[in-house]
Design brief:
The protein has 335 residues and is an alpha/beta fold. It contains 9 helices and 14 strands. The chain has 2 domains: 139 residues, 3-Layer(aba) Sandwich (Rossmann fold); 153 residues, 2-Layer Sandwich (Dihydrodipicolinate Reductase, domain 2). It is globular and about 60 Å long.
Length: 335
């Protein structure tokens, strides 16, 4: 018996909209139905490629009864309205991170998803990256975790729309939420946050250089550094995420480069001896961000599977909301 394909609608046709679309198109249970983008040319390009309809208003796309799943790939200041209408019409929503501008918005989205009994997922694809898989497979070997230390940085000369006033984003929102989601996943709730928020780029309204220290409920300490201004922290690793997880019996270090999978590495240190951990190979690589390997595919396939099997999905809206609360705490404590 064949399963009826889920109709997919894409709101936002930039880089995120492109990779969402590509991986939906590879899933046999999906049929891409429509695109919306503020500049219609990008929507027309994707619609032509995937034989779908272009919408001049995102609201009309959401209201199409043949569309069951909405991917929201727009700037964060648009997420709440787009998610709210989609969820209220009982559409399943996969929202790019950060999921919302603030906790009021994220709570609204989470509550709507619960009320309408639909899935709300957040695109924390790093959870599915082979680098993080390797960390997960070995993290129990280092004993009780005492601290996590991460650096996530890029050297962006121009921020474009990210630096515009009232866009609701910045380095903490864009990159930091990825890292905070992983930390919460590994260590649980955060109870205290100390931060210094930097704004150094000219003609930009957003944060671009942040240092944050936090305390987890289980007693562990976290240190997070993220920057739009830093080209490298390591000769081998030009731009990306570097993490160190210290336990009572050892340490795990990992490197994750968004653009070059050959830079991706994981090490474990036990009894003062360092060993490199083999990373699972990807059969398929994302074309825009090959360093993320097959994590986009696995996330989207998992989201679709959760819908078809009527099961919950993680990373969920609740997971996304926790990262937004952390961002709010960091900004509040930097004042």
């Amino acid at each position: 018996m064949s399963v009826k394909k889920l109709g997919i609608g894409i709101i936002g046709c930039g880089k995120a909209g492109n990779y969402h679309t590509y991986w939906y198109s590879k899933n046999q249970n999906c049929l891409i139905k429509g695109f919306y983008n503020r500049t219609i040319e990008k929507a027309e390009e994707l619609a032509s490629k995937y034989n779908a309809k272009v919408y001049k208003k995102w609201e009309d796309l959401v209201k199409n009864p043949e569309i069951n799943v909405i991917s929201i790939c727009t700037p964060v200041n648009q997420h709440k309205d787009q998610a709210a209408l989609s969820l209220s019409l009982k559409k399943h929503v996969l929202c790019e991170k950060p999921m919302a501008c603030n906790s009021v918005e994220s709570k609204l989205m989470v509550n709507l998803a619960k009320e309408k009994k639909v899935n709300l997922g957040v695109f924390f694809n790093m959870r599915f990256n082979p680098v993080i898989n390797a960390v997960n497979d070995n993290i129990n070997k280092i004993g009780k975790i005492t601290s996590i230390d991460t650096s996530f940085q890029y050297n962006r000369k121009e921020l474009g729309w990210r630096g515009e006033q009232d866009m609701g984003t910045g380095v903490l929102m864009e990159m930091g939420t990825h890292v905070i989601d992983l930390a919460l996943y590994w260590l649980g709730d955060i109870v205290r946050v100390h931060s210094e928020i930097g704004r150094f780029k000219k003609n930009s309204y957003c944060d671009d250089h942040d240092f944050i220290i936090c305390k987890f409920r289980n007693g562990a300490i976290g240190k997070f550094y993220m920057s739009y201004n830093d080209p490298s922290f390591y000769d081998e690793q030009v731009e990306g995420l570097f993490g160190q997880i210290l336990g009572e019996e050892g340490k795990i270090c990992f490197l994750l480069n968004s653009y070059n999978p050959l830079k991706n590495r994981v090490f474990i240190i036990e009894n003062n001896k360092k060993k490199e951990i083999k990373i699972r190979d990807s059969k398929e690589y994302d074309r825009i961000y090959p360093g993320h390997m097959d994590s986009f595919k696995i996330l989207i396939d998992s989201f679709i599977k959760s819908i078809l099997e009527n099961k919950s999905f993680v990373p969920s809206g609740e997971d996304g909301a926790k990262t937004i609360k952390f961002v709010e705490d960091a900004f509040r404590n930097s004042e």
